Amino acid sequence: MAQRKQGGFTILELFVTISIVCILAAAALPSFSSQVKNERIVTNANQLHSVVKFARGEAAKRAEQINLVVLDTKWLVKIHAGTPEEETLAEFMPSHPSVSISNLRNMTVSKTGAMPTAQFIITDGDSQTADRYLCVFSSGQSVLKKEASCL
Fold it and tell me: pTM of this prediction?
């Protein structure tokens, strides 16, 4: 009987391939982890910025004062705060326990959209990630920055 050669991988070829994949994965893991942490900060910074813009837009649209109220770890956008007609229009809360917002405080947005100046720091406390800074100006305009200066 003639022998036929069967196709396939030898056990040695399989182990070499698995070893190479494992080495590449181990080299890429720290970079991937850092990327995930940075994306958490950027996502939360963008969400916080959106809430500020939303509050300003609602104040101008409704021609009424809007309040940004801190409640535990949330920042609530309220209209008619402290009255029976009080309504929460939106809220912000960090999406991950490692992310925190410094200098979060109660603020009032006037019906013209003006608000007190403020600088919020969005951080995860890790020196390997880049913190973000949300600068709010008295006109109500706001900008996200990587630098600590709001000038």
Answer: 0.79
